[in-house]
Amino acid sequence: MTITTCLESCNEMGFTYAALGKGTQCFCSDVKGNSSLLRYMDSAHCDIPCVGDKKYNCGGDKYLSLYRTRVADTRCSHMELKSEGSLPLIALASFPRSGNTWSRQLIERATGLYTGSYYWEHERKQAFGSKAFPGGNVDYKLKQTICVKSHLSLTDHIKEFEGGAVILIRNPYSAIVAEVFRRHMFEKQQSAEEAMEYFKSKEWEAFAKAQSEKWKNMAMQWLTYAPRVLAIHYEDIQARTYEELTKIVKFLNVEVDPQRIMCATHEYPSSQSTGISLGNHGSKTRVYLTYDPFSTSLREHINGYIKTVNESLAAHHQKLLQDYNSVKLF
Description:
five-stranded parallel beta sheet; 10 strands
């Protein structure tokens, strides 16, 4: 028995999940509601090699390795693009690396409506974007999508969105470091080790100061100029996906369907709930810093911006940011 043979068997029988245990067992299941099968644990518990391929582990003595099959979950598989002019322009605004793409996936599954993008002309040329987000292939000004991705903070741009904005706000320390890895590993095609060298360079501190100011401006501008706003903290949607997604659906004026929202959280679970290895045969998929790259003076600089954003959040009756001291895991 191997991971592949178990997955294929469950696919052929029409099940949405395959679970492997004790190195030899294969179970197929359709997960509905708040199933204990999706109470993710540390992948280290799955420590028994697969009988048919000992390079990979197939569960543990009391734990199952869980994999998603190719079978559609009908609770939230249907999504559509509305007719032109039928929806208000509502932004899904964030500083880069703050969960915008993941949130779009969740919102589409939870509402049954495609999301759009300010960057639609670029997205429709990308292999991933054009397939993953059909709503990102059309001009967002046609008002056919439930919300629109944006990383911009210009006042005139914000005022386009008469329906307001959902603002995704992440710990700035984590967001800035994640942006470094994106630029170096994906744009420059460097290794994780090469990317980490940047934090020791002369350019790092100036980059962090500039990016933290952009982070602050992003939050302040949308809070100030959007006609209505919902601030969602990235750390909250990671920890309590169902609850935070429900808030977003209500803000978007879509009827709450608990099964659709539950399905969305199953289709796109948070990295906090799944750890680093779900669905990737135990391979490490995230990069971790082994030291704090933020100097005391840089931390004081960023904390000043956090204080400023918190004052604006309070003025707009939104949840305040935590007292972040530095970057955590990402």
